[in-house]
Specification:
Layout (H helix, E strand, L loop, with lengths): L4 E6 L10 H8 L3 E4 L5 H4 L7 E4 L2 E2 L2 E2 L3 H13 L3 E6 L9 H10 L4 E4 L4 H8 L13 E5 L12 H7 L2 E5 L5 H10 L7 E6 L7 E6 L3 H8 L5 E5 L6 H4 L11 E7 L5 H8 L3 E12 L4 H8 L6 E4 L2 H13 L11 E4 L2 H9 L13 H11 L5 E7 L4 H9 L3 E12 L7 H6 L5 E4 L2 H10 L9 E4 L2 H9 L3 E4 L5 H14 L1
Parallel strand pairs: 1-6, 1-7, 2-3, 2-6, 8-9, 13-14, 13-19, 15-16, 15-17, 17-18, 19-20, 20-21
Antiparallel strand pairs: 4-5, 9-12, 10-11, 10-12, 14-18
Family: Belongs to the precorrin methyltransferase family.
Keywords: Methyltransferase, Porphyrin biosynthesis, S-adenosyl-L-methionine, Transferase
GO molecular function: uroporphyrin-III C-methyltransferase activity; uroporphyrinogen-III synthase activity
């Protein structure tokens, strides 16, 4: 095995949208990922399933692993020849001890790269509408670690900081908030200087407490501040009211769990994030093409004999065309066949392959598709339905009733999977999640498989259609259904659900 390599990647302050393109590209190819508790859930859910994951969680005063040991792990995994990613919250070189992690590698001649991350002392104020520098107020920015060793005085020159007249940002100092403010006051800072604590910045729990250097401690205690948080001192704090933008988005402060088939790139997630929601995308199900596609291949051989080709999911379309390609079947062989699709998503997927749907029901479910197509089909006509192994039985029955000769061909199966990195059950039990969004009955089942023992009456479920809602109702969830079975309509439903809280 050749020599491995280590990438030190900054995961940013939490919002998955602030993870860099280079960070994502490298992470996708990682074979080993070493991560800690400051990495946002959105980034964690992008760790490839095939990678070996090593958690080296560090939270103030609860060290689960000493730094020396982390350095050692990086070295050992790289020496085995792996592509190793060390994933760190924020930026690896800002109080992230990234330099210490590279020392050992550099002594041993292990190649490495550093991928900078969006850093919280600038990004978190920005998400609160606070520019850390503003021409009218200051001409410098100072970033200080507020972390101090137990029982020791700060070795911070507070007087010098006060003299800079700049914006001050203290990281990891919330537990020492009182000491820091006291240090500034003793150093000669105006007691009325604006100061703020900004907690859980860029995420749905984002909150700010704005006061002055002399009152911030009691104000923060009164309002209760959750870590991670940063402390900001300077006149720029007063701009929050004028420039705040994130909290004005319609879904700000709302955390949504999106269960989805892993292989469908999620438009739903993008639209929810655009509206300001924090989206936890967890794969509840994975679709896998069947090993044995002989029945589909037989259908390809007599494709000219079918009058209708029926698709019941975007995945069904995807796999059908992949298999055609494997058999070197030309798309022109579908020339005389009419095409039906169950709904909007499936129709769009067909369009990507240059095919326009001839029939789509008003309501996007199997029964409605069966009824609509039943009216179009002539007795004796052959209908091909390539679809999931466990599909809606009723669809084929309705078509046979109309006299069609139906060939129901399973081409893929649904596998349930559970996130190994994020405890979904705990997220619901702690009330962090506003709602779960389900786009099919099988995603509801997948979610239930991954959260055994959860009290489902605590789950607020936004469902795309009737069958999905019925599946969620069966578990006793609080359910709502989108007006139309489209992603857009589902997003509108989530907005309504947020306002009901």
């Amino acid at each position: 095995m050749g020599m491995g390599k280590v990438w030190l990647i900054g995961a940013g302050p939490g919002d998955i949208g602030l993870f860099t393109i280079k960070g994502q590209e490298v992470l996708q190819k990682a074979e080993v990922v070493v991560y800690d508790s400051l990495v946002g859930q959105g980034v964690l859910s992008k760790i490839p399933a095939s990678a070996k994951r090593i958690f080296v969680g560090k939270r103030a005063s609860h060290h689960t692993m000493p730094q020396e040991e982390i350095n050692q792990i990086l070295l050992e995994e790289a020496e085995k020849g792996y592509r190793v990613v060390r994933l760190k919250g924020g930026d690896p070189f800002l109080f992230g001890r990234g330099g210490e992690e590279l020392e050992l590698l550099s002594q041993r001649g292990i190649p490495y790269e550093v991928v900078p991350g969006v850093t919280s002392p600038i990004a978190v104020p920005a998400y609160n509408g606070i520019p850390v520098t503003h021409r009218d107020f200051c001409s410098s920015l100072h970033i200080i670690t507020g972390h101090k060793k137990a029982g020791q005085e700060y070795d911070i020159d507070f007087e010098a900081l006060v003299r800079t007249k700049g914006t001050l940002v203290f990281l990891m100092g919330v537990s020492a908030l009182g000491d820091i403010m006291e240090g500034l006051l003793k150093g000669g800072m105006d007691p009325d200087m604006p100061a703020a604590v900004l907690s859980q910045g860029t995420l749905s729990g984002q909150k700010r407490v704005v006061a002055t250097v002399s009152t911030l401690k009691e104000e923060a205690d009164r309002q209760g501040i959750q870590t991670p948080a940063i402390i900001l001192v300077g006149k720029v704090c007063t701009l929050a009211d004028e420039f705040a933008w994130y909290e004005k988005l319609p879904l700000f402060g709302y955390k949504v769990l999106l269960t989805r088939p892993k292989n469908l790139i999620s438009r739903t997630a993008a639209l929810l994030r655009e509206k300001g929601a924090e989206v936890l995308e967890l794969p509840a199900i994975r679709t896998v093409p069947l090993e044995d596609q002989s029945r589909l291949y037989q259908a390809f051989e007599q494709i000219k004999t079918y009058s209708w080709l029926v698709f019941t999911s975007p995945t069904g379309v995807e796999i059908f065309f992949q298999e055609m390609e494997k058999r070197e079947k030309d798309i022109r062989s579908l020339g005389g066949i009419k095409i039906a699709s169950i709904g909007e998503g499936t129709r769009k997927k067909l369009k990507e392959h240059g095919i326009y749907t001839d029939l789509m029901p008003e309501v996007y479910d199997g029964d409605s598709l069966g009824e609509a197509l039943g009216k179009e089909v002539n007795p004796g006509e052959k209908v091909l339905i390539p679809r999931a192994e466990k599909g809606n039985e009723n669809l084929a029955a309705l078509l046979r009733k109309a006299g069609a000769v139906v060939e129901d061909v399973p081409t893929y199966q649904t596998v349930y999977e559970k996130s190994s990195l994020i405890d979904e059950k705990a997220e619901f039990e702690s009330g962090n999640i506003g709602c779960a969004v389900f786009t099919s009955a099988s995603t509801v089942k997948g979610f239930a498989e991954g959260t055994k023992g959860l009290d489902y009456t605590k789950v607020r479920a936004a469902c795309i259609g009737k069958q999905t809602k019925a599946a969620a109702d069966a578990y006793g969830m609080q359910t709502w259904m989108a007006e139309k079975a489209t992603i857009e309509s589902l997003i509108e439903l989530v907005e309504k659900m947020k306002h009901m809280e």
